[in-house]
Design brief:
Structural class: alpha/beta
Oligomer: single chain
CATH topology of the largest domain: TIM Barrel
Shape: elongated
Distance between the termini: 29 Å
Radius of gyration: 24 Å
Length: 372
């Protein structure tokens, strides 16, 4: 006899489906695009909001043995799941983080001379050689050694890197999603110059969009992130080479008719120019449908796109269903993200990018994982 857990209701007002098979296929796609360079998996921010505990094992089963996270806590959690993987922590090696980095066998991405000195001191104290990544800033002005620190490191590399095994030298492109930007070639040149100044080591420059810039940007290791989750690395510029991963659906709570001049939603930002059929969905900005998409976004019903009308509220989205061939009913499902509504389409409507859409999908929506 099967007894249902009463904490898991049969009815779901909304549903988010994560296709793990699509994640694996996107990883294989990047291997084809970037080969012979190795492909690491970026699973920071809980696998871009989709569950690193499910995404990372999927990537590992597909052949991925190197992973990048941002926070120390993410690295510790990932180590419990993947005891034998190489795990790089982008935040570096602050003094308070060193004991945990050591005990969980995590490799810090060293972003400054201070980071390097601290990790070198840890190696000396442990009387061992520690793996490290050196991050060189080539034009982002965020993390990474600025040019004046790179000059110091290059002049004193033997002393400053003593006790460290340089697993990787990396940098980050600022405008890789703009293939025609001259900044890409400029950063590539700076990165090559930095590599020539430092001891020989594997190199990494390209993330998802950088991989599509071509072989010159691949070096020894690439680091795809958003592309693994189905996002188009180049936005809406070209057809997406990636397989969609996330499908978000909601159900109609109400379908009703309104008259000409009736308004919809808070602030009366939409006024009907004719009699309309309006459907109200059980999704809102608490679930990751950004308020900025109000009166701009589109959903899909039976493969046909219908517009958002009125403001997106915390729990509800309203759609104009007037031009559909058949009238939907209460309880029918609608696609907010998926085969017909891409991450990039919703991002464009909200004035943001696929990264924010993925990471903003609320935890209130139940997540279901499929191997398809």
């Amino acid at each position: 006899m099967n007894i249902r857990n009463p904490s898991e209701p049969d009815y779901e007002a909304a549903r988010l489906t994560v296709r793990l098979g699509a994640v694996a296929e996107n990883y294989r796609c990047f291997r084809r695009l970037a080969g012979p360079a190795a492909v690491a998996g970026v699973v920071k921010a809980n696998g871009y909001g989709q569950g690193a505990d499910r995404i990372a094992p999927t990537l590992s089963a597909a052949g991925c043995d190197s992973f990048f996270v941002a926070r120390l806590a993410e690295g510790i959690a990932l180590r419990r799941i993947l005891p034998n993987a190489r795990i790089f922590v982008l935040d570096g090696a602050p003094p308070d983080a060193v004991p945990a980095l050591l005990s969980h066998n995590l490799v810090p991405v060293l972003n400054s001379l201070a980071d390097i000195a601290g990790w070198q001191a840890a190696a000396a104290a442990a009387r061992c050689t520690l793996e490290a990544v050196v991050h060189v800033d080539t034009g982002m002005s965020r993390l990474g050694l600025p040019p004046y620190e790179l000059t110091v490191l290059a002049a004193e590399a033997r002393k400053r890197l003593s006790g460290l095994n340089l697993a990787l030298v990396m940098s980050q492109l600022a405008c890789a999603d703009e293939p025609d930007s001259p900044r890409n070639a400029a950063q590539l040149a700076r990165f090559r110059q930095a590599l020539a100044m430092l001891p020989a080591a594997p190199a990494s420059l390209a993330a998802s969009a950088g991989i599509l810039l071509g072989r010159d940007y691949h070096f020894d290791l690439v680091r795809p992130g958003v592309g693994l989750y189905g996002g188009h690395p180049l936005g809406l510029l070209t057809d997406n080479p990636m397989t969609p991963v996330v499908t978000l659906t909601g159900r109609f709570l109400q379908v009703r008719r309104i008259d000409r001049d009736d308004t919809v939603g808070y602030g009366a930002t939409f006024r009907a120019q004719r009699p309309l059929l309006i459907g109200t969905l059980a999704l809102g900005y608490a679930d990751g449908i950004l308020r900025a998409a109000s009166n701009r976004g589109r959903a899909a019903i039976g493969g046909r796109l219908v517009p958002y009308v009125g403001r997106v509220s915390m729990d509800l989205v309203t759609l104009d269903l007037s031009d559909l061939p058949a009238e939907p009913r209460v309880g029918d499902e609608v696609e907010l993200l998926g085969e017909h509504v891409s991450l990039e389409m919703l991002a464009e409507a909200a004035g943001t990018n696929a990264y924010e859409i993925l990471n903003g999908l609320g935890r209130r929506v139940p997540r279901h994982y499929t191997e398809n």
